[in-house]
Amino acid sequence: MSALPRAHELGLIGCHICGQVCRDTGIDDAACPRCGAELHRRKPNSCARTWALLIAAFLLYIPANVLPIMRTVSLGDVDDNTILSGVIELWVKGSPDLAVIVFTASIVVPMMKFLVMGTLLLSVHRGTNWARAQRSKLFRLVEFIGYWSMLDVFVVSLLTALVQFGFFSQVEPLPGVVYFGLTVVLTMLASMSFDPRLIWDCKDEDE
Predict the structure, then answer these.
(1) Do residues 109 and 161 share a domain?
(2) Which pTM was predicted?
């Protein structure tokens, strides 16, 4: 089965900032006529930078889960909670909806991003053509959920509503929030550094 022509075969290059399709002039440091960004057939050192950011994010995710993320004061009891114990605390104190949101934003989403980005990087390194369309969809999913990843960082602010309703008398952020925030930022930078066009660089078996 004949494959569709690639962009470089047609003399075209896409801007990775605004998506403008430009004529590939072959000139170094050529700029996008729409946004002025430098044009690259592929993002320079994409895999190396993505690996570095992803590993750094994973290392920071460990203290983010071990160190307490918030302190709650309720009926005279003072509790320093990690992410998981905070989820349990919210559930026990009568806020299961918020507990599910925090668990999803702080546990499910980061682990899924680590798993998906690691899978994409390994598949690119191996040069496999396995499920390329599905891997591209996974990358778009990671990009989409990245916009909601900071939700847990603002959870202490959201808990002020619970203070007003009497569930807690006081809520304070603790150092775990900082590590989690750094984890979120680094995973977002990792997904931005990864060039999804690398998924399609390997040759089709039928070509």
Answers:
(1) yes
(2) 0.75
pLDDT in tens, the chain (207 residues): 446 666 666 667 877 778 778 777 766 677 888 887 777 777 778 889 999 999 999 999 999 889 987 776 766 677 787 888 878 877 887 778 878 887 888 888 889 899 999 999 998 888 777 877 888 888 888 888 776 666 655 655 555 555 554 555 666 777 888 898 888 889 989 988 898 888 877 654 443
Q: 54 and 80 share a domain?
A: yes
Count the residues in the chain.
Answer: 207
Q: Which of 143, 140, 134, 137 lies closest to 187 in space, CA to CA?
A: 143
**170 shares a domain with 90:** yes
CA 98-139-123 angle, to 5 degrees, is 125
Cα separation values, 190 from 58, 60, 126, 144, 154, Å:
11, 14, 19, 14, 22
Residue 205 lies in a domain: no
Domain that holds residue 16: 1-41
The one-letter code for the residue type at 177 is V
